[in-house]
Each structure stands twice: as structure tokens, then as C-alpha cells.
């Protein structure tokens, strides 16, 4: 049985994998179909006169989850918040994966090719990555977002930059591990150039763990996007619904309307759990050592 078929067989038999896949598919479906799932706009405040300081907004047939403190439909905020989290988390992860993969491939390639200059380049790149790793990723994201200002692109760049060192380290380590495999020794014996071996053989066989890590990083990205919004460093436009900003708006009404904070908090936790379960089970399924 091939590695791919064996991995799929293990994946679909794992309850955690099915649970994670269902959560992720539901999250993506809600984000994509947001305009279909609600007739309202996320920034609409036409029901502001129905919200009082002494009573929380009650759910009804017109508003499934009730109203927030500004008189906006809470279900609409939740649905469009899923879309915002998906877009920002996905784009930031792609940026982090791309930049980190380039750095990791360069470092691993120079280290594999060898030579004095190759080892020097690898050492310089990895020291830069170590400096980035020495600072907590959320602190890196907060610093970048604070410098660039409160908008969606600053969040994307901040979260993406925080993920770069993890992808770089992972791809470099995977390439160094592959450099000692039998097929690399056979390629050397056939007289192939080192550059051709690295680009044509080692690199393609090393990207698998990095792609799987991207699924796990999506969970971290969604949490960090919500964290930046909670700290006031997210999108400043009130028309853009964000789960983190919903948590901020719910603080002064938690005693009368706790659902204003519970719903977005649960959404963040469940979504992150789904991507974590999916990524972990994918890594286990693709691990050749787990084949039976």
C-alpha cells in the first residue's frame, strides 16, 4: 500500500481527525456563506433603542442570538466574524509559510551543499531565526501591529511575521534529515550535482511536514488575530466584524448579557481546536513510522 493511501486510511479511521475536519468544514462554510446565513449587515445599529443598560438583549425569531450593546444583530456579528478570522488567518499563514519556507530552503540548501561559505550562510540565517524565536510570537505580532497601525493588513503582516521562524526551522531540519537518506546517497553515486540533488530531490521530500504545520499554525493565527483585535490593534473600521472586538464590547455588559462574551469566546476556542485536531492527525497519518 502506498504512503498516501495508507495515510488516508489511518486518517479516516481516527475520530479526532473526523472531528477536526467537521469543525473546519463548518467554519469555512459559515465564513463563505455569510451573506446567505443572515439578512442583516454587521454594522447595522437600527435596533439600538431596544438595548437598555439594565437588561440584556434577549434572543427572538428575528435575532437568533439577540443584540449586542450597540443594537447590532449578534448572529450577524458571529457569522461575519468567522469570515474575517478565516481571511486574516489564512492570508497571514500563507505569508508566514512562504517567507519561512524560503529562509528554511536557503539555509537547509546551503547546509546540505556544504563548504565554508555554505555553512556561513546557514549560520547567519539561523541566528536571525533564533533572534525571532527568542521573542514570543504574540509579542512580535503586537509590536509590528502597533508600528503599522490598526488595520487588516497590519494584522496580516504581524501574524505572518510571527510565524516565519517556525516554518524556517522546520523546513531546514527536515532537509537536513533527508540529506542522509539512501536516495540522496544514490544520487551522489550517480554523479548528480549537489544543487540538483537539493532542489530536485531533498526539497520536494521535505515540504510535507511544513505543509502540515501550516494547518496547525492556522489555529494560532486565528487566536492571535482575535488577540490583536481585543487589544485594539485590529481593523479599526466598525463595519468589519471581529470576534476579538466583540469580546471587548461585551465587557461592560457581562453581568446582564454574558452571552455577548461567551459566543465569540466559544467560537474562537472551537475553531482553534478544529484546526489543531486536523493538523495533529494529519501529521500522525503522514508519518511513515506509524505505518502498519
Automatic annotation (TrEMBL):
Membrane-crossing residue ranges in chain numbering: 86-113, 125-147, 260-279
Subcellular location, record wording: Cell membrane
Name of the featured protein: ABC transporter permease
One Pfam family, short name: BPD_transp_1
Source lineage: Bacteria, Bacillati, Actinomycetota, Actinomycetes, Kitasatosporales
Superkingdom of origin: Bacteria
Membrane-related topology note: Multi-pass membrane protein
PANTHER family attached to this UniProt entry: D,D-DIPEPTIDE TRANSPORT SYSTEM PERMEASE PROTEIN DDPC-RELATED, OLIGOPEPTIDE TRANSPORT SYSTEM PERMEASE PROTEIN APPC
UniProt-listed PROSITE patterns: ABC_TM1
Occurrences of domain ABC transmembrane type-1 (ranges): 82-279
InterPro entries recorded: BP-dependent_transpt_permease, MetI-like, MetI-like_sf, OppC_N
Keyword ATP-binding set for record: no
Keyword Lipid biosynthesis: no
Family to which this protein belongs: Belongs to the binding-protein-dependent transport system permease family.
Keywords: Cell membrane, Membrane, Transmembrane, Transmembrane helix, Transport
Species this protein is from: Streptomyces viridiviolaceus
Primary location: membrane
Amino acid at each position: 500500500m502506498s504512503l498516501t493511501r495508507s495515510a488516508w486510511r489511518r486518517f479516516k479511521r481516527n475520530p479526532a481527525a473526523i472531528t477536526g475536519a467537521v469543525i473546519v468544514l463548518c467554519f469555512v462554510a459559515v465564513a463563505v456563506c455569510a451573506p446567505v446565513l443572515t439578512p442583516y449587515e454587521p454594522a447595522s445599529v437600527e435596533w439600538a433603542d431596544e438595548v437598555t443598560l439594565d437588561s440584556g438583549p434577549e434572543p427572538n425569531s428575528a435575532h437568533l442570538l439577540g443584540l449586542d450593546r450597540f443594537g447590532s444583530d449578534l448572529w450577524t456579528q458571529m457569522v461575519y466574524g468567522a469570515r474575517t478570522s478565516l481571511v486574516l488567518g489564512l492570508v497571514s499563514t500563507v505569508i508566514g509559510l512562504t517567507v519561512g519556507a524560503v529562509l528554511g530552503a536557503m539555509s537547509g540548501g546551503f547546509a546540505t551543499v556544504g563548504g565554508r561559505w555554505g555553512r556561513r550562510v546557514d549560520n547567519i540565517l539561523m541566528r536571525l531565526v533564533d533572534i525571532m524565536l527568542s521573542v514570543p510570537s504574540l509579542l512580535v505580532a503586537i509590536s509590528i501591529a502597533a508600528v503599522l497601525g490598526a488595520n487588516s493588513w497590519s494584522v496580516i503582516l504581524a501574524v505572518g511575521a510571527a510565524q516565519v521562524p517556525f516554518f524556517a526551522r522546520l523546513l531546514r531540519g527536515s532537509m537536513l534529515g533527508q540529506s542522509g537518506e539512501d536516495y540522496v546517497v544514490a544520487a551522489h553515486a550517480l554523479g548528480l550535482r549537489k544543487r540538483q540533488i537539493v532542489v530536485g530531490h531533498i526539497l520536494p521530500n521535505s515540504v510535507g511536514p511544513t505543509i502540515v504545520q501550516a494547518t496547525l499554525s492556522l489555529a494560532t493565527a486565528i487566536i492571535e488575530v482575535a488577540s490583536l483585535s481585543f487589544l485594539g490593534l485590529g481593523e479599526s473600521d466598525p463595519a468589519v466584524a471581529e470576534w476579538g472586538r466583540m469580546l471587548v464590547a461585551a465587557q461592560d455588559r457581562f453581568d446582564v448579557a454574558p452571552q455577548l462574551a461567551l459566543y465569540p469566546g466559544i467560537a474562537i476556542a472551537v475553531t482553534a481546536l478544529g484546526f489543531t485536531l486536523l493538523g495533529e492527525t494529519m501529521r500522525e497519518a503522514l508519518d511513515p513510522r506509524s505505518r502498519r
